Amino acid sequence: MSILNVENVHTYYGNIHALKGISIKIDKGEIVTLIGGNGAGKTTTLRTISGLLKPREGSVSLDGQDLLKFKAHEIVYKGISMVPEGRGIFARLSVTENLEMGAYSRTSKQELQQNMERVFTLFPRLKERRTQVAGTLSGGEQQMLATGRALMANPTILLMDEPSMGLAPVLVELIFDTIQQINKTGTTILLVEQNALMALSIAHRGYVLQTGEIVISDTAENLKNNPTVQKAYLGME
Amino acid sequence: MRTSPGERLLDLAVSGVLWGFRILLVAAILIGTIATIRAGKYTSEQWIDFVVFGISQGSIYALIALGYTMVYGILRMINFAHGDIFMTGAFAAYFLATWMNGTGFIDSYPILGLLIPILFAMIVAGGIAMLVERIAYRPLRGAPRLVPLISAIGASFFLEYAFRGFFGPGVYAYPPIKALEGEWDILGIGILKVQVVVAVAAFIMMAILYSIVMFTKVGKAMRAVSESKDTAALMGIDVNRIIVSTFALGAAMAGAAGVLYSLIFRQVGFFMGFTPGIKAFTAAVLGGIGNIPGAMVGGLVLGIFESVGPSLFLEGLGITRPYQLKDAIAYTMLVMILLFRPSGILGERITTKKA
């Protein structure tokens, strides 16, 4: 039984037809990745699921519940959190305040403390810098903060938009290790990446997006060996 | 990029003129100041009086400026109806205080007689601001930035002339609080009680507002929304609710300022919000619009400049009725800041941040 069900979704930016009938199913506990070039519609897909964009057609449901009737901020309460493209940290808030904002949907103080401890165990670096203003963090630390912030809401599904963007290779590996760790604790993950090789190395399944349409859908293993994927996204001939 | 020699010459000429302007201004202030001090017309006690008046006046500007700056921070919009929100607060307090005065309550409990009208003014002003936001601004949220600005000017006129329609073009006298009449002797200098009370009350309000913005969940959410509405929504923050709260909070401060202003000037009328509104806007720009501590600093600086300036440097320049030019000082400051330091004293960028 899939937990997140995106069916035949058409999303527009004004008159631009950005998503042309996309269907994605994600099972509980999976890491699923969306790969594709610039402008393929990866970010648009995530923004549609998180409610920032509303599709003209199609349906998005979580655990059988229709998500389209909810606004973006209500969808967080349903259990979907997103690490936005370019991290989107609140630069003028402190690290702690950023994390508190991540837990905005949680009312219990105790839960907030627990979640913060969890994030600090996952990213000890953030604990060292907790009083620092987030805008002064390095790129890698900002990515940790954005990830930790999304975890503060205790999501059942975590949407991640290009977590490797602009990071040094060492940090990319660290972030991907953490993604696997997060997944092992039971969080389902939908990962959008330009870095297809990294994404496929940790994902269970993947979808390949091209100009707003899904062209291939397969297990990560098969995608890695798929000649079309190899040529277009893995830089192999 | 390559510019033609003509363009470069023009640039040079413009910056030359601006620099000349700056030097001239500083020189005028210096010459005026020296001349005044040489003439020795005012005693140091009088100077202190000017400064104290400047502080109490400035703290009122600061209180109003907070509303401009908070709304700008969150919506990148100048809420030109804010001065009139200040007026609605003063009217609300006026009616309540007059009634309370009739029962003799204010004379017997002067502190409550001051606080209850302030609280009432805050509630009324906050409520009206929420309505204005809902009716005149929210439907225009996605529109180009000029559109809500025009709507704000419309809302400003609407409030002014609605109040004129209901309560007439005249002014009403705010009931006196006897306990606040007279002077306190502080270190041998007589200082008007009203001015001290107004300044203290304003500082308390500012401290409360600052704590709300810095330490409460709503306050942190306000700061988050001011950085990015989309990301804030992804945190589960109801952006519209935070925007309304921002309007209400800023308006409550303006409402309280309306009462404090009425305590000093004792006059309540439909047009009373116009000048303090623009002054407070100047204060917000002076401090760096979008910046909360900046609004407080800007308000105080403007108040003191306005109060000390006429006697300090205008009189020394041989201007015979310097106090008539009090407002000119404020507006000159506004133009100067926009020309020379658009980011204001505490420097938030005003220009094209995130369109």
Describe the structure.
The complex is a heterodimer of chains A (237) and B (355). Chain A is of the alpha/beta class. Chain A has a domain at 1-79 and 158-164 and 188-237: 3-Layer(aba) Sandwich (Rossmann fold). In chain A, 38% of the residues lie in helices and 27% in strands. Chain A has helices spanning 42-49, 72-78, 95-102, 109-122, 124-128, 139-151, 169-184, 196-202, 220-225, 227-233, and strands at residues 2-13, 16-27, 31-35, 57-62, 65-66, 80-83, 157-161, 188-193, 205-210, 213-219. In chain A, the strands form 2 sheets. Chain A has a 6-stranded mixed β-sheet, sandwiched between helices. Chain A has a 4-stranded antiparallel β-sheet with strand order 2-1-4-5, with helices on one face. In chain A, strand 1 and strand 2 form a beta hairpin. The longest helix of chain A has 16 residues, at 169-184. Chain A is globular and about 45 Å long. Chain B is mostly helical and 355 residues long. Chain B has a single domain (47-340), classed as Orthogonal Bundle (ABC transporter involved in vitamin B12 uptake, BtuC). Helices cover 74% and strands 3% of the residues of chain B. Chain B has helices spanning 5-39, 44-75, 82-102, 105-108, 110-137, 146-167, 193-215, 217-227, 229-234, 239-265, 274-287, 292-314, 326-340; strands spanning 172-173, 183-186, 189-192, 267-268. In chain B, the strands form 2 sheets. A two-stranded antiparallel ribbon of chain B has the order 1-4. In chain B, helix 2 runs antiparallel to helix 10 and helix 11 crosses helix 12. The two termini of chain B are 24 Å apart. The interface between A and B is medium-sized, with 25 and 17 residues.
